[in-house]
């Protein structure tokens, strides 16, 4: 059944991404599945579970440009993403209501193979679904970009997520936050990271 399939997929991805540390606890102590180096990278807020929205849904934040800049190793990026998803999936309400995903591209829009794999973790490997997906880019999209974006989201996340994906173009941090909040009133500006005009930071993470 679907639950059994997701459980098998979860452990398949976990072993693929964490290797010999896969069976260790998912914590930010540096002594579990996440190494001390992983914890430092994760605390840079490049892929993180933000505070829940006002409806109690988990909120996942992915800064793809920052992620690639600070973590050139694709497996490191996947570990950050997996941990954030693991935290989000521990929220019982999100198991039924889904999670909110915020994806930020601060430079050119490009999807790598690890990005596709990270998206498949949501679709196949975790017991959660996506309630809403907000994507921000810094430039004015063209018609061709819109066409490519739609097909990319569908192939990366699947059609169900593509249907709940909204694209924004904004240059400043404040503009990004304002545009997301205008379409996602359940989010709070203080719970957004600085790249979205908020004040939430890695010091808020719980080990």
Give the arrangement of secondary structure elements.
Layout: H1 2-18, H2 36-42, E1 47-50, E2 59-63, H3 64-70, H4 74-89, H5 92-97, E3 99-104, H6 113-125, E4 130-137, H7 143-157, H8 159-163, E5 165-169, H9 173-183
Parallel strand pairs: 2-3, 3-4, 4-5
Antiparallel strand pairs: 1-2
Helix pairs in contact: 4-6
Task: Provide a descriptive summary of the structure in words.
By secondary structure, the chain is an alpha/beta fold. It has nine helices and five strands; from the N terminus they run ααββαααβαβααβα. A five-stranded mixed sheet has the order 1-2-3-4-5, sandwiched between helices. β3, α6 and β4 (130-137) form a beta-alpha-beta unit. The protein is globular. 37% of the residues are buried. The model has no long low-confidence stretch (mean pLDDT 79).
Biggest sheet overview? 5 strands, mixed
Strand content: 5-15%
Which strand order do you get reading across the main beta sheet?
1-2-3-4-5
Rounded mean pLDDT is 79
User: Which runs of at least 5 residues are low in confidence (pLDDT < 50)?
Assistant: none
Number of strands: 5
Task: Tell me the radius of gyration.
Answer: 16 Å
* Shape annotation: globular
User: Helix content range of the residues, please?
Assistant: 40-55%
Structural class: alpha/beta
Q: What is the CA–CA distance across the termini?
A: 34 Å
Order of helices and strands: HHEEHHHEHEHHEH
Helical segment tally?
Answer: 9
């Amino acid at each position: 059944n679907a639950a059994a399939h997701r459980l098998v997929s979860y452990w398949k991805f976990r072993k693929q991404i964490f290797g010999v540390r896969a069976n260790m606890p998912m914590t930010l102590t540096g002594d579990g599945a996440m190494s001390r180096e992983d914890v430092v990278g994760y605390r840079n807020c490049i892929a993180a579970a933000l505070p829940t929205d006002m409806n109690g849904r988990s909120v996942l934040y992915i800064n793809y440009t920052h992620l690639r800049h600070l973590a050139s190793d694709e497996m490191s990026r996947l570990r950050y993403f997996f941990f954030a998803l693991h935290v989000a999936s521990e929220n019982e309400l999100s198991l039924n209501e889904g999670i909110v995903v915020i994806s930020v591209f601060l430079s050119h829009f490009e999807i790598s193979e690890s990005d596709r794999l990270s998206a498949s973790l949501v679709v196949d490997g975790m017991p959660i679904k996506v309630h809403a997906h907000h994507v921000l880019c810094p430039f004015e999209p063209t018609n061709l970009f819109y066409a490519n974006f739609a097909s990319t989201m569908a192939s990366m996340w699947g059609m169900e997520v593509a249907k709940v994906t909204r694209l924004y173009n904004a240059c400043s941090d404040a503009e990004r936050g304002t545009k997301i909040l205008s379409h996602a009133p359940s989010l709070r500006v203080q719970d957004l990271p600085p790249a979205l005009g908020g004040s939430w930071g890695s010091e808020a993470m719980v080990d």
